[in-house]
Amino acid sequence: MKGSSLKILLIEDDIIEIMKMNRTVSSLKLKHKIVEAHDGEEALKILEQKDSIPDIILLDLNMPKINGIEFLNILKKDKKLKYIPTIILTTSSNQKDLLECYKIGIAGYILKPLKYEDYVTKIDKLLAYWSINELKHI
C-alpha cells in the first residue's frame, strides 16, 4: 500500500548519515522530499518559512550549536510547529535522553542500527507508517 509522499526535515550534522538517508530513500524508490539541516539553528531558520512546513522531522540528538533536546524544547513552544511529528534518529541509547524526549513530546525514538540493511529496513517502515498516517498539519 503506497502512501502519500512526505516532506521530511532531516536534522543531522553528520554528512555520512545524510548521504545514507538519501541513498536509502532513493534505493527504496520513495518519492519523499528531504530537506536537510546540519544543526538545530539551520532547522529553525527553515521552519521560520511557514509555507514549507515539513510533514515529519527526523532529528539527531548529538549536534553542535543547539542539540536535539534543546531543539525539541524550542519547537514545542511554537503554536504552529509543535504539531509536527518529530522522530528521534540517533545512536544514543541513553535512557535519560529517551525519557526526556518523550516528556517533551516526540512521535518516536529510533536507534540507528550499525548494519546498513537494518537501517534501510527501519527507515522503510518508519516512512511507510508516516506516509499513510492521516495526521496532517492543523
Keywords:
single chain, 138 residues, alpha/beta, Rossmann fold, five-stranded parallel beta sheet, 5 strands
The whole-number mean of residue pLDDT values reads 90
CATH class term of the domain at 1-53 and 73-90 and 105-124: Alpha Beta
Element order, helices and strands?
Answer: EHEHEHEHEH
Estimated share of beta-strand residues: 15-25%
Shape: globular
Strand order of the largest sheet: 2-1-3-4-5
Give a quick account of the main beta sheet: strands, pairing sense, barrel closure. 5 strands, parallel
What does this structure look like?
With 138 residues, the chain is α/β, with parallel strands linked by helices. It has five helices and five strands, in the order E-H-E-H-E-H-E-H-E-H. It has a domain of 91 residues: Rossmann fold. Helix 4 links the parallel strand 4 and strand 5. Helix 1 crosses helix 5 and helix 3 packs parallel to helix 4. The protein is globular and about 35 Å long. The mean pLDDT is 90.
